[in-house]
Batch of 3 targets.
Target 1
Amino acid sequence: MSKQSRIIPVAGVKNFRDMGGYQSTDGRIIKWGHIFRSGHLAEMSNDNSILNHNIQTVIDFRSDAEKVRHPVQWTEGWEPQYRPVPIGGNAAAWVKELYDRLSKTNFPAKELREQFIKAFEMIPIANKAGLKSFFDALLEDNGNNAVLFHCTAGKDRTGIAGALLMKALDVNDEQTMQDFLLTNDAVDLDATSTTMAEWLSAKAGQKIAPSDVLPLVGVEADFLIAAYGSIRTHFGSINAYLEDAMELVPERRKKLQALYLR
């Protein structure tokens, strides 16, 4: 199945994707139509296209401040079980500071990338409780209904959660990274970074290159690698993190796999 088949157009929702089709090490496949990931839902169209996916549970990683800026909005006829699971570490505070500094300093492209690396190192460690709640929600048997998890852009916190889920389902590193980097296709990285650079250039009164703003709109392999490195530093291995911090002991991990693999 091509990677593009996982990217699903839903009007007003960025980075909406089906995580199905990836293969675990024992040959089972993540079920299509059972796990979705995306950006926020505040601008979702009322065309009811979201109803096609039978989503019963929505897990929202955004902070209270993010939800004030982009309040949750359900399309008519859709009232899923809403699970707020705030997770920090999306570099939002630093990015706001960046915007405030633009009129006084050159665009700090290197510093921006470093902040995102730091965020990826911090998210799985400082937010263990929130990520465990994410797995707790996934472990609830929703019958044949689907689960959607999201943050604001659907790429950083959602990217880490998606990668951890795939590791818990015994999907290999290559496919896990493929899903992580699929954000860049889903958001049309070149076009989006160009638009963002033009907007920031006008705000700052200086020329900012599209390549400088890539961490704001897309992801790099090094981001996920940084998260893995931090997990290994603190827990020794990804599997130890899943068992100790996420409480995915063998019985719970087998249940998770039974729910989402076929």
Note: The two ends are 16 Å apart (CA to CA).
Target 2
Amino acid sequence: MAEREASISANSLEPTFRACIHRGAHQIGGSCIELACDGSRILLDLGKPLDAEDLDPALLPATAGLLNGAEPGLLGIVISHGHIDHWGLAPLVHETIPVAIGAATCRILHAAAPFVPNPFTPENTIELSDGVPVTFGPFTVTPYLVDHSAFDAYALLVEAGGRRLFYSGDIRAHGRKAALFERMTRNPPQNVDAMLMEGSTLGRLDESSRFPTEAEIEERLVERFKPPGFVIVSASAQNIDRMVSLYRACKRTARTLVLDLYAMEMLRATKNQNLPGPGWPNLSVYVPEYQRRQIAQNKRFDLLLPYKRERLYREQLSEIGNSAVMLFRPAMTRDVDEAGLWPGARAIWSQWDGYLKDGAGAKLKASLQERGVPLENVHTSGHASITDLKRLAAVVSPSALVPIHTFESDRFPEYFDNVVRRKDGEWWDV
């Protein structure tokens, strides 16, 4: 008996590594994965569903200790990147639970807090850094910096119990950091037992199609900016790649890019000296009326100090309007009304066109139509094409490929090998 026991491999004595997708197995948004091993647990992302209006505790997964922090087995939450559908429920979580997050992502979230509802300003944090492992009890998490429309985004390799799980997070290969995707294809994580791979583009794009690169978006913007006339662009200020494209296109067409205080604070929070900032040519700051009210109400006059020299006022905006491009959101409509800039103006929608179908996007579209302002879409996806997803799956070559962040999990076997579909709430061995 002793000899038989001695012959048992060490692997068979290791604790079981288990996983559960609480949300995301059959939808885009609200991503949350729970991992368990040897009595300990961590979460990968804790997103708010895209169709959720309120920050409701009822949306939290059935994970012990999230609200009261009293469960010693819950060791932390790892946030892959700064989009709300990956962190949006985290403000509900008890402050004693550590949050692992990229340093730049954390700074951006803190900088956004004065401007957005339900801000997330984590204090009990562990810094994620490209290639640097972080340990939570039996779990070792290694972040891989990836190309995505969110700045400082990571894929995550998790090792526990002698098994390896790789979570793609949100990823693409056509942004300004596309080299990161190519780096991963050259040196992918090895011996992956389960890969949770996003499939946002399945059902939106056919296999032979590709998205325009961010460099191609810049070229399209250059063409749109060449004719004179005031131009507004509706884009996310946290899409740093797009802010760079807008700036470069303005510089190439001798235009002034007009950013509001929120957008400038997002750029400043990156601490990247290669990104547009105070003192750069072809860049001005306009503080719209609604932001002035926010600043006065919250007594945050300090937010204005870095931008004194670059600041434009309404009369100056009117003067340069014919050669200006303004990063625009619906709350600025009154400012443009009073500046008298709508005649001859053009509008560019530079984010997912699905947002134009209802809500604020649909209202903006109708508002522009009332003012006789044509609206054009110039955008590329924050998610990988099917071709690039196939490249990623092939080089990682997991024993099991599990769909996540997709409405089309049933179509994964058409494109990928070793697909194992899971249900939300289903626990399984990695």
Note: The CA atoms of residues 350 and 379 lie 5 Å apart.
Target 3
Amino acid sequence: MDYEHISRREFVADTGKKILTAALLAPMAGFGVHAMSQSIPALLNPIVLDLNKPEYRALAAVGGAVKVPHPMAPNKPIMVTRIDEATVAAFSVICPHLGCKVGLPQNGIITCPCHGSTFDMTGKVTKGPAKTNLYQFDAVLDGSIVTITQKKS
């Protein structure tokens, strides 16, 4: 638009259209920014859990689960689940859809309270809108000790 030869009415109408467009697009851009801000920092040191301690006793039984603080981001905990007698899984509680925190499993299903995405006990997505799994960590069970480390690519 040639702003040197524009009437006041045209200027106001053009400016109004731009403001309306920005107002409509801002929430969509905000969702993308929010989801990106939920990135999970790397574990610099292993996390070691002793299943004999009361706070981790739920992991002694198959199907049990606990949340533990991420040492680099306490507001982004790590969920640890007991898959079978010899296997545990560890993954972020941050849903990859829009960054909400998933709850502990109920009947083997982990659910995101925001939009209903579900995940299995290993953190794999079973129902959307999430399209990717929960961020995975390596977890090893050795007797009554669980060691959680950064996933190797």
Note: Residues 47-150 form a domain with the Rieske Iron-sulfur Protein fold (CATH 2.102.10.10).
